[in-house]
Amino acid sequence: MRTDTGQIVHLADYRPTDFVLERVDLTFELDPTNTKVEARLIFHRREGVDPSVPLVLDGDELTLSGLLIDQSEAPASRYDATPESLTIRDLPAETPFEVTVTTFINPEANSQLMGLYRTSGVYCTQCEAEGFRRITYFPDRPDVLAPYTITIIADKAANPVMLSNGNFLGGGDYDEGRHFAAWFDPHPKPAYLFALVAGDLGVVEDTFTTMSGRDVKLRIYVEHGKEPRAAYAMDALKRSMKWDEERFGREYDLDIFMIVAVSDFNMGAMENKGLNVFNDKYVLADPETATDQDYANIEAIIAHEYFHNWTGNRITCRDWFQLCLKEGLTVYRDHEFSADQRSRAVKRVAEVRHLKSEQFPEDAGPLAHPVRPTKYREINNFYTTTVYEKGSEVTRMIATLLGSKDFKAGMDLYFERHDGQAVTVEDYLKCFEDASGRDLEQFSLWYHQAGTPLVTASSSYDQKKGTFTLSLEQMLPATPGQSNKEPMHIPLSLALILDNGQIAAPTAVKGGEMTGDVLHLTERKQTFTFSGISSRPVLSLNRSFSAPINLHFDQTPADLAHIARHDTDLFARWQALTDLAMPNLMQAARDAREGREITCDPALTAALLEAAGDEALEPAFRAQVLTLPSEADIARELGGNNDPDAIHAGRHAILSAIAREGNKTFLRLFDEMKIAGPYAPDAASAGKRALRNSALAYLTYAEGTPARAAQAFAAADNMTDLAQALTLLAHRFPDSAEAQGALDTFLKRFDGNALVIDKWFSIQATIPGAGALARVKALMENPRFVSTNPNRVRSLIGTFAFGNPTGFNRPDGEGYRFLAEQILSIDPKNPQLAARILTSMRSWRSLEPQRADHARSALATIERAETLSTDVRDIVERMLK
Ligand code: ARG
Ligand code: ZN
């Protein structure tokens, strides 16, 4: 493990390299424990750089075993090699010159899963962000771009497949038992996009004809026997390629595009040029083993990585501070893709749910940082939902402010102007300014100021004048390192809904700019007046979630119900129902805490049941309506001094009340939404299943017995229904014979299928209540628990910490102490994984004092540990600050 070096990197310190890398030639002689890497690098000195300036290459846990300069051995006096760097002096005055570095590395011993490692006997790489320096000494930064030629030599029997970036040059027999393969990637790229895969893998093949008529070979590599489970991923890939041509005018640029699925992977997937490497969770699917959510994730992540080919690879980041340039934009692109492939409104609801449950807490806690940070200690800790999801929302707001035509012109200009370059957020914004003529100076604060803006709204209507007045005030909370903030440019989509359900068209708007249905809030306080409004309207504000803000607007239940019934923006209808539910859920939590009786507002039940039963609405949307805000959502709204047990009890009571009241509706939906015929993963069928399973959950609440869920479990013919029924049984009736029987049946049926067994672990890790910890500890003793496999660790320990509020936040603090122990045991093997799971405690300060005290001491235990990775040290120190 690389222990903490404590060095903070600042954006302000950026300067270009002294040497320009022209070409890279790498030769790998693969061996499980002793792989030889020979790197031939051709550099020239940048103009104006003094010849005495040394060349400094990055390393990480490396030992130098050979160094040639212009093909002759370098005397020891000319270089210094440490595990972290190689400094070469007295370089030839005549440039270009060639440096040949030889290193030996041990893939088998690489448990960090960064650099070159082994997974199920397959060689595989992960180089983003700084993994390449674990392979060879190199200028490992994203603004160093070069074409790569790769030669792989390995045992032929064990490694029939040998892949790298670019196009295949050729291959053949090498020496006793070994063969070789050569690849050339003509597109200059930074080292983080390098990839190599070798091993014995099965393959699924297809082709895609691009818009200019070129045939591209498509290949997805999986473990032997799993080929049929890659069919959906292949289909998603072809749809992604087509969509990027149609929507963004982007064509693929190599002869071949490959995806490799591996079972040990720290993140979701990686966009290496022409050779994406995936966590197999986001490739493999069939009806028997994958849920509708799994299918949707596969579609989104296949698209995401493919879209990176232009947003990330052809145009990359100048430095890691610009990460959102590729990630935020690419998330925006994959969101748009899924919205076009599925239902836009339902997709938007799911996105906003995710944003609010993951990004908003990050932005409100000790780990808050701007979308474009200005300093970091460990870059791996900045692959955050702020950079990704808020980054995507920022691009969405640009599209909203500019309108689709100017937004497209800005994107086109970006691709044209910066193709082949490593650029900054400023370069990106300039393209939209130049294409639209709009000044984005104030808007750019979204990249620089952390925190979720709070917008407070109040309104009044003047019948005599026919005017509607809206007063808005924005406030951006203080975040670590940023106490004083400037007002932001906030685009707010709105509608004034009249009594008859029609949307009013004001004759004039005063007080600020309005384009289409979008109001531009640019000042701290601003009052807008709409004239020509004939009767008192109901205001629907921040429709489609046009800005990622918290909105305080006291609307009556009647007004919210009016929006829920009439807005033409479906997202706003869902939002209104959520706004109706939230005060109820918050009050229920307070009542539960004080031991008071809990009541559910009949207006809420009526509005929910009306929407749920509305056949004009698609089932997927109705299912979203019936999914009330989560316990974490309620905790966030309550804001502090939280008691997770009371929140759980309050929510439970509200759900039960709705279940009793809506019994007839749920019985009908459970019946009507049944799908005859074989499973298909399309969005419409998935929506019906979601609505039916939601009805099943309410029925189970009302009935209070496991019978109906047990029946559903027995009758299920697909993983969506099966996992849903199992979750209901285990979560609602954990001690029943039905739950135990179903868990056993499930295990027997899917034993050996790692991705399904992950679900078995997760479902048990999230059983509510104080007993969860004992269950999690027992499951860790199960031989199926593999502590080196990130998916398995996340499915049990990660899911427990992130997804079981009552189980994890036990009042006695045992959950936190357990997590601290686990972090300390994972960290030496896989720091990235440890740091990621530790962020589950990011909201510890909003707990009630007793729990918060326990949480603080558990964090302090971690902080006191003698050896910690930079990853974990960075997170724990920021959390305690
Ligand atoms: N660029 C990858 C993506 O598509 C994520 C890789 C992150 N890897 C890491 N070690 N931090 O989102
Ligand atoms: Zn990405």
Automatic annotation (TrEMBL):
Residues 451-553 form the Peptidase M1 alanyl aminopeptidase Ig-like fold domain. It comes from the Bacteria. It catalyses: Release of an N-terminal amino acid, Xaa-|-Yaa- from a peptide, amide or arylamide. Xaa is preferably Ala, but may be most amino acids including Pro (slow action). When a terminal hydrophobic residue is followed by a prolyl residue, the two may be released as an intact Xaa-Pro dipeptide. Residues 232-443 form the Peptidase M1 membrane alanine aminopeptidase domain. Residues 558-881 form the Peptidase M1 alanyl aminopeptidase C-terminal domain. It is an enzyme of class 3 (hydrolase). The keyword Metal-binding applies. One of its GO terms (molecular function) is alanyl aminopeptidase activity. Its cofactor is Zn(2+). Its EC number is 3.4.11.2. This is Aminopeptidase N. It comes from Neorhizobium phenanthreniclasticum. The gene is pepN.
